[in-house]
């Protein structure tokens, strides 16, 4: 299939209509066969609802970034939303994703960093990059202390994220994101001095170092969280939103900050939801009237895969299957069920394996695939294709793409 | 699927590890069904070992250059190694490939040409571009005579290749490869004068013409090899090696100069081997400990296809199948069996038909394909994809590619 390198064509032909698209992302869904049964997690799970949906859908397998490439979460999701994951991943800093993910209202000139509370020993060497994963409440308390730091010409926001993780936002004139990390990404060494990557960033590097120095003093008596590490300094990139490209009014239902941040960055409204699968499906129902595109993200499959817990991943998939009627009952015009990448329990991490996808619509031209599984999807009507093409397919099936050319 | 346009991404994520990849290239493997049986050469051959391997592999079909495009040997192999065949074919001259293929130590400023001994009549018109395919020994003898030619400011190397084929290397200051061929590529006409393609190449063109003129005198009494034709003047291109891109330590086992030359050009170590299939597999075993990537090239299938000899091609495939346990017995982490293009005996030449591929690894997510054949591979889990993506897939399956993006 042709690669969608830019959005020019889609922008030209996309139209707003009342039809609704639901993109259900089962994070890390794809797996590998269990040595004893020869069946993947998805093939092992009892999924009557997904199988029934697959039977009236068109199925296939996608490559999020490319064959052989194991995607991180950000590239995997960028591809799902139609954004070239290599091109846009370069443009999006981790600090920005982190700040947006906790609903911080980042301004165009703000510089955001991702931070960790960490433990340093008496010599100042990092002994634990995560400060023993302090509770989120402790993180919030320490962030309040750090927000008292005063640096001339800069307004500071120190924002708790989860456990040891925080985000720091610097607001002021003439700041630049072109500065290096203080996080050495390893233990046994001291935090690094932040350095300007070009002369225009000298002032920002000095400000970041002042912040770290003062934070060190304030945190000294808060062992194990007696230091802070910063990385991924970045500012809001100039990238098109889903509204710009697809003329959609999109909403995101996701419990984890990273996915919320990415969704917000490309113009989705973040909906309130609890972390449970049923809560996420409930959020969909509650907000169903108000948007025409829903990104519903479920994290548990990926976490179980990362933990190498085959059975737990199977259970999460079965739980999703049980919740599915809450989604199908809304009768969306288009339902896409897929993932951002595979996370086989056997590999205990993300992998390069292509991802099963089903696309349901009244106009999908269903194939003969009668169950939702990696093996069955091989012979699906969508074939094997880049994940960046899911959005044009979903839009077309929602009758939201006009004819190209007379 | 995404096209890998450049190596930036792969360079970023490739890692060196002890795992080993064997790429078995059965040249021209793909075929067309015999009119009487409806089976291709590969489908006709009795291949229990390849079939067993296919059953635990993921299979598919590749397009070396693109659907409908019949690849020459160089583009077909470039694609197998992950190099965009259109881009890099332009950069690699035939003279360079020929010289490297016979293990000549080409220097960066050398100009290499591919040559043929040929037959001319009394009027100087070419009557046989291959001089009746003189024996290789005769070729070597004539090359020694031609190497006596003296041209001011240039050191000459005249190198026998095989039968009527030779390579000529010009070494000196200020030489340029931007000169035209003397080979008219047809009979009944005189060899052409070599012309400079730009003013900087005037001197080199004059040198080449002097060489041809003196060669003509020397060869006059050596009918049928009474003249020489030169083409493909070229110098070493600046292209990334497989070490640069994949951080591999690669080795090539190939009997034919062209494949050896190409392999050496992209940084493979050329291993000593006899021409027989069993000798090539033996070379693999002998050198197995010392490299992490092996390109094993088998020519007989292509030669039989070119000759239109269906049965001989079947026999060569069966011979490879018999030798296969010598490869699988080494238990490489990744085994890829495929070809650089199809050479159907019915077409007596290379063709555009996609090429069957099997990829075996512990992590390959095997599909339901239970035999290695063009027809069975249609329903393989790899689908149909560009051959340039074989290397990323092989690297991923060898766990030699890190995650892209956090």
Report on this model:
The structure is a homodimer of 406-residue chains. The first copy, chain A, has helices at residues 8-13, 41-44, 48-55, 73-80, 85-91, 94-101, 136-146, 202-219, 242-246, 257-265, 277-287, 300-306, 310-328, 374-377, 390-397; strands at residues 21-26, 58-63, 111-120, 126-128, 155-162, 165-171, 227-234, 250-253, 269-270, 293-298, 334-338, 355-361, 383-386. Chain A is built from 15 helices and 13 strands. In chain A, the strands form 2 sheets. In chain A, strands 9-8-10-1-11-12-2-13 form an 8-stranded mixed β-sheet, sandwiched between helices. In chain A, strands 3, 4, 5, 6 and 7 form a 5-stranded antiparallel β-sheet that branches. In chain A, α4 packs across α5. Chain A has 406 residues and is an alpha/beta fold. At the A-B interface, α4, α5 and β13 of A face β13 and α15 of B.
Structure characteristics:
homodimer, 406 residues, alpha/beta, eight-stranded mixed sheet, five-stranded antiparallel sheet
pLDDT averaged over residues of chain A = 95
What pattern of helices and strands is seen along the backbone of chain A?
Answer: HEHHEHHHEEHEEHEHEHEHEHHEEHEH
Question: Overall 3D geometry of chain A?
Answer: globular
Quaternary state of this entry equals homodimer
| Most extensive protein-chain contact, per-chain counts | A-B, 41 and 32 residues
Count of distinct strands of chain A = 13
Percentage of residues in helical conformation of chain A: 25-40%
User: Count of helical segments of chain A?
Assistant: 15
Intertermini distance of chain A: 22 Å
Cross-sheet strand order for the largest sheet of chain A: 9-8-10-1-11-12-2-13
Low-confidence stretches of chain A: none
Bin the strand percentage of chain A.
Answer: 15-25%
Largest sheet of chain A: 8 strands, mixed
Structural class estimated from helices and strands of chain A: alpha/beta
Radius of gyration of chain A: 22 Å
């Amino acid at each position: 299939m042709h690669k969608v390198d830019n959005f020019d064509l889609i922008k030209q032909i996309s139209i707003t209509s009342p039809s609704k698209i639901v993109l259900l992302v089962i994070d890390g869904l794809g797996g590998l066969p269990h040595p004893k049964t020869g069946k993947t997690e998805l093939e092992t799970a009892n999924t009557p609802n997904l199988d029934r949906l697959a039977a009236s859908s068109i199925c296939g397998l996608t490559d999020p970034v490319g064959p052989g490439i194991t995607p991180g979460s950000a590239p995997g999701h960028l591809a799902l939303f139609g954004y070239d994951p290599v091109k846009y991943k370069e443009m999006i800093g981790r600090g920005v994703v982190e700040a947006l993910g906790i609903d911080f209202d980042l301004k165009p000139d703000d510089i955001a960093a991702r931070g960790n509370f960490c433990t340093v020993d008496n010599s100042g060497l990092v002994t634990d990059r995560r400060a023993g994963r302090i509770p989120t409440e402790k993180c919030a308390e320490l962030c309040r202390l750090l927000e008292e730091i005063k640096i001339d010409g800069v307004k500071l926001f120190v924002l708790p994220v989860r456990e040891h993780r925080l985000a720091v936002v610097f607001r002021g004139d003439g700041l630049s994101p072109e500065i290096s990390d203080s996080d050495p990404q390893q233990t046994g060494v001291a935090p690094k001095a932040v350095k300007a990557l070009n002369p225009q960033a000298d002032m920002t590097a000095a400000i970041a170092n002042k912040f770290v120095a003062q934070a060190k003093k304030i945190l000294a008596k808060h062992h194990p969280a007696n230091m802070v590490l910063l990385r991924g300094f970045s500012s809001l990139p100039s990238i098109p939103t889903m509204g710009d490209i697809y003329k959609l009014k999109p909403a995101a239902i996701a419990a984890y900050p990273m996915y919320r941040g990415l969704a917000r960055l490309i113009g989705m409204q973040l909906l309130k939801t609890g972390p449970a699968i049923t809560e996420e499906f409930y959020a969909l129902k509650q907000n169903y009237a108000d948007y025409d595109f829903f990104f519903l993200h479920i994290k548990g499959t990926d976490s179980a895969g990362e933990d190498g817990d085959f059975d737990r991943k199977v259970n999460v998939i079965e739980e999703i299957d049980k919740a599915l009627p809450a989604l199908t009952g809304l009768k969306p015009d288009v339902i896409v069920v897929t993932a951002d990448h595979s996370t086989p329990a056997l590999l205990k991490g993300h992998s390069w394996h292509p991802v099963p996808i089903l696309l349901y619509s009244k106009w999908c031209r269903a194939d003969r695939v009668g169950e939702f599984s990696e093996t069955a999807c091989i012979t699906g009507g969508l074939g094997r294709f880049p994940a960046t093409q899911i959005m044009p397919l979903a839009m077309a099936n929602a009758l939201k793409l006009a004819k190209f050319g007379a």
